[in-house]
Amino acid sequence: MKSLKEKFPFLRSQLIEAFQTYGITKDFEQGIEIIRNQQYIKFIPIVLEGLVKVSARFNDKELLLYYIQPDQSCVMSFSSFIKQQPSKIFAVTEDKTKVLLLPSEKVAKWLNQYPELNTLFYQQYDLRYQELLNSLEHILVDKLDKRLYDYLKHKAKLTQIEYLKLTHNQIAEELGTAREVISRVLKKLSNQNLLLQSEKGIKIIR
Predict the structure, then answer these.
(1) Are 89 and 54 in contact (CB under 8 A)?
(2) Which of 22-26, 118-122, 177-181 has the highest mean pLDDT?
């Protein structure tokens, strides 16, 4: 694994040393909720290895917002911390994941002491904004079969897993639709030889 200095070359050595001194590096198994909805943020996470799924709940529905990949942080957690408001999202590990947890009270001081730290979070805001625009385009322009296919391709690329072990209900929750609709569209994509469904999971063919 790359060192923190290699991962974030724009951060000065003193700040990297502060990360190592005050940050907590923690390993999580798959399926662990590392940020809860409505919790006050005590640590800002930076993913070092693995993958974290960030979602929001609206009444009884769950909606996928974005994935935190290695060398990325969670802008929604950062925003909640800055505003001193409870988290509006929850984050769950999609794989075995190593996370650097930075104490929020230290981050507040570092933002003033090391202005370049703002660059890290500005980059994350820009990244999530572009993802939001892409998601809106998918919802407004694309049909569900393309949305579903692109979603599965993206997830396969992120996880590097040949067979995605996802239930139809899980997919429906992340795309904000009904399980029956997902089942019907998956069958359509299978008939088009775009994917394969088996006991092993869902495999993207092309």
Answers:
(1) yes
(2) 22-26
